[in-house]
Every structure is written in structure tokens, then in C-alpha cells.
Design brief:
Lysozyme-like_dom_sf; 3 strands; 2 domains; Helix Hairpins; Transglycosylase SLT domain-containing protein; 474 residues; 2% strand; single chain; coiled coil; Lysozyme; mainly alpha; three-stranded antiparallel sheet; 11 helices
């Protein structure tokens, strides 16, 4: 059916093979090697770009942290200024209160002297009325006396015969003369009494006038003192108002600096994180919620969850592939063994994801340590599945619903509740260090190899506490 191809001499076969081999080598040199070089160049370029990006982020972080330090000092200076103005204000307030007391005393004294002056004025007016009455009485008596003297003069000028004719008898005449003499003496005595009373009242009037002049002088002096104290009080009040305004202005500036610090802190943490929690403020609010439930200090909880998952940014880089062996793969598809303990954690992991409607083979978990142990930690709090199931019912009672290890709020509360059980609610650094170590290493918490973990958590908690104090204005 087929014609036989002519045979090729062996020498020709060798030449043909050499030609083909040469072509293959040339092809590899011209195409394959440049392709490899191109891939290597691309990888190197990406690495350079990534390094440049990290350097830019680090430089930006240094700039922001320097600005935070400047603003922190500025806030402290404004705090000191506000305290200084507060002390000044308290001093002025004390002076105003003291002057108010002195003014009240003088006002009381002025009222007393005004009453005394009014009484003296009334006494003078009454004496003036009495003097006028006595003067009228004296003038009346003087007129009667003048009339009597005139009659006496007339009698003295009458002749004996005229006298006899005027009276029926000498006895009547002498009675009339005696009566007029007696009346004259009585009138003289009355006039002397009136004059005595007038002199006494005038003397009293003089004394009252002197007394009134003294009272008027005292009132004038006290009024002048009151005016001087009032002016001084107004001066102190103005100084007090100025001090209080300056105090408020300093407090406002300190508050503005702290607000700016909070905004810069959020920039720093946003720079570090592109996960569920995008700012320090958001993470702090979640930590405060967990604190109200568990009593665990927010700064400590933030430090631990920042270390564990950067508050939800780092949820792991591995996927479960084979539930029977726990073998998995990385996000870029590289096979990894020990991704999840097949007997301890895979069954509860499958149950958790099923209840939450998650694909267990498309849900990120932590990768294992390159040299030992298992991966499989879930969510922002990095719980392994068996540990999560151990507090599932308790969390449901706390939350009022089933907990979700990938829900950042649930993760904060679950982590705080676990730390509470390990003694962190005492809010003592030693207890918090131990709780962090148990959280990380379980029964091997006191292994010196793991100590840097707890030390790092405590150091970071101190930093966050300082940031919280700034945000809270402390």
C-alpha cells in the first residue's frame, strides 16, 4: 500500500541531525532564553517597584509620626497654658469673691448709716417743729406781757381820783394791781422757761447737725470705698473673663491638635491596612464594645489583634484542598501541607462554613509555620476551628445570635472573651502578658521561645494606650 522510502546514508543522517540540533539550539538562544530573561527582568522590576512603594510608605509614616510628635508637644503646651489660665482664673475668682464680700459688708454698713441719718434727719425736723412751736408760744406770752405792762403803765399814770372812780373800792383796786403783778411774774417765768427750752433745743439741734454731718461724711467715705471696690471688682472680673477666655482658647487649641493627631493616626493605620477595619478610630470603637462586654482593656485587645491579623487585613494566605489530609494551597496555587489539622479542625471548620453559607475550599485561613505545626486559623481573631467551636454557644449568648469568625465585630468580642478567661480583665500588664502568651501558645505559654510575642503585644499596647489618651483628650 505504501511505497518504501529510499534509505539515507549514515553520513547524511549525521549531517541532518547536526543541522536540526543546531536549529534547536539557535531557537532556544534566540527565543527561549530571552523569554526567561524577560520573566526574570519583570520579576525584578516588580520587586524594585514593591521596594520603592515600601520605602515611600515608610517615609510617609516617618513624616506623619514626626507631625504627631509635634502636635503632641503642641497639645501638651496648650494644656499647660490652659492650666495656667485656669489657676489665674481661680485667683481672680477668689479676688472677685473677696471683693464681693467686702462690698456686701460696706453696703450693709451704708444701709445702717442711711437709717441713722434718716433718724437724725427726722429728729432735726421734729426739733425744728418744737422750736417753731416754742417761738410762737414765746411770742404769744411776750404779747400778753406787753399788754400787761402797758396796763400797768396806764395805772401808774392815773391819778388817785381816777383810780377811785374806776374801782368800787380800794380793796378792788389793790386786788387788780396784785393780780397783774402776779400775772406778770408768771409770764416772766414762762418766758424764761421758753427761752431755756429754745436754748436747749438749739443746742440739741446743733449736736444733731454735727451728728448728721458726721454721718454724711461717713456715708460719703463708705460710698467712695464702695465705688473703689466696685471698680476693683470690675477690673478683677475683666481679668477673670480674659483668663477664662484664654483658658477656653487654649483648650480648644489642644482639642484641635488632638483631633488632628487622631486624623493622622487614622492615616497611618489606613496606610498599613486595606482590610475590614480602615482606621484606628474604627478599631478602637470595636475594642470599646468588647471592653463593655468582657472588661478587657481596649489598648491590649487592639495590640493583640493588630499582631494577629492587622485588624482583619491579614486573614491568611491558604485554602483547604483535601479535608482528609489537611493539605491545601496558597493563594497563588502553590501546594502546602499541614494547612489544617484533619482530625481536630477540619470537621468543625466544615460545620462552621456550612452554617455561615461559606465555601470551605474558597475561604482563606492561615498558612502553617514552615517548620512545625498546623495552619487553619480563621478571621481577624485567628481562631482555629476547634477553639471557635469551644466558645460558640457562649458567644451566641453574648451576641444574641450565632457568631461569625470572619465578622470583625464578632472576632473582637470573641478574642476579648477568650482573653478574659485567661485573666486579661484584671487590666494588669503581667496578667495581660500571660493572657497573650496563652492565646498564642496554649499550654506552652511559659516557653521562653515564645516570650517575644507577649513582649511585642505589651509594647504595642502601651503605644496604643498613648494614642487612645490623645484621642480621649487625656
Amino acid at each position: 500500500m505504501f511505497a518504501m522510502l529510499p534509505s539515507v546514508p549514515s553520513s547524511r543522517k549525521s549531517g541532518t541531525f547536526f543541522l536540526v540540533a543546531t536549529i534547536v539550539v539557535l531557537f532556544f538562544v534566540l527565543y527561549a532564553i530571552p523569554s526567561v530573561w524577560s520573566q526574570e527582568d519583570s520579576t525584578q522590576q516588580e520587586q524594585v517597584q514593591q521596594a520603592d512603594l515600601e520605602r515611600a510608605k515608610e517615609e510617609r509614616r516617618r513624616v506623619l509620626e514626626a507631625e504627631i510628635e509635634r502636635l503632641r508637644k503642641e497639645a501638651e503646651e496648650y494644656d499647660e497654658e490652659a492650666q495656667k489660665y485656669n489657676r489665674e482664673g481661680d485667683t481672680y475668682q477668689h479676688q472677685v469673691s473677696r471683693l464681693n464680700s467686702e462690698i456686701s459688708v460696706i453696703q450693709s454698713q451704708i444701709k445702717q448709716y442711711e437709717l441713722l441719718l434718716d433718724q437724725t434727719t427726722q429728729e432735726i425736723e421734729r426739733n425744728q417743729d418744737t422750736i417753731a412751736f416754742l417761738e410762737n408760744k414765746r411770742q404769744h406770752h411776750a404779747r400778753i406781757l406787753a399788754d400787761l405792762l402797758f396796763e400797768y403803765y396806764i395805772i401808774q399814770e392815773q391819778s388817785f381820783l381816777e383810780i377811785v372812780l374806776l374801782y368800787d373800792s380800794f380793796s378792788d383796786f389793790f386786788d387788780a394791781v396784785q393780780h397783774r403783778v402776779s400775772l406778770q411774774e408768771s409770764l416772766n417765768e414762762a418766758l424764761r422757761e421758753v427761752e431755756r427750752l429754745e436754748k436747749e433745743i438749739e443746742r440739741e439741734q446743733t449736736e444733731l447737725s454735727v451728728k448728721m454731718d458726721e454721718q454724711v461724711l461717713v456715708l460719703g467715705t463708705q460710698s467712695a470705698q464702695q465705688d473703689a471696690l466696685g471698680a476693683k471688682r470690675r477690673e478683677q472680673q475683666n481679668l477673670l473673663n480674659t483668663a477664662r477666655r484664654n483658658e477656653q482658647a487654649a483648650e480648644d487649641e489642644a482639642s484641635r491638635a488632638r483631633k488632628t493627631i487622631g486624623q493622622i493616626l487614622n492615616q497611618i493605620y489606613t496606610l498599613e491596612s486595606a482590610g475590614v477595619v480602615t482606621s484606628f478610630g474604627d478599631a478602637y470603637e470595636l475594642a470599646k464594645l468588647a471592653e463593655r462586654i468582657t472588661g478587657v482593656r481596649p489598648a491590649f485587645l487592639l495590640a493583640l489583634l493588630k499582631t494577629e491579623s492587622s485588624w482583619g487585613r491579614n486573614l491568611g494566605s491558604c485554602y483547604l484542598v483535601d479535608p482528609s489530609t489537611g493539605v491545601g494551597k496558597t493563594k497563588n496555587g502553590t501546594p502546602r501541607s499541614r494547612v489544617m489539622n484533619p482530625t481536630r479542625d477540619v470537621p468543625p471548620f466544615l460545620k462552621i462554613t456550612e452554617e455561615l453559607g461559606r465555601d470551605p475550599y474558597n475561604t482563606l485561613v492561615s498558612c502553617p509555620h514552615p517548620e512545625y505545626g498546623w495552619g487553619g486559623a480563621m478571621g481577624p481573631a485567628q481562631f482555629i476551628a476547634s477553639t471557635w467551636m469551644g466558645q460558640k454557644e457562649e458567644l451566641q449568648q453574648i451576641l444574641g445570635r450565632p457568631g461569625d469568625p470572619w465578622n470583625v465585630q464578632d472576632a473582637f468580642v470573641a478574642s476579648a472573651n477568650k482573653l478574659r478567661k485567661y485573666g486579661a480583665a484584671t487590666r494588669n500588664e503581667d496578667a495581660e502578658w500571660k493572657a497573650a502568651m496563652v492565646y498564642y501558645a496554649g499550654g506552652g505559654w511559659n516557653n521562653p521561645t515564645y516570650a517575644p510575642y507577649g513582649n511585642r503585644i505589651i509594647q504595642l499596647a502601651r503605644q496604643y494606650q498613648a494614642d487612645i489618651d490623645i484621642l480621649e483628650g487625656g
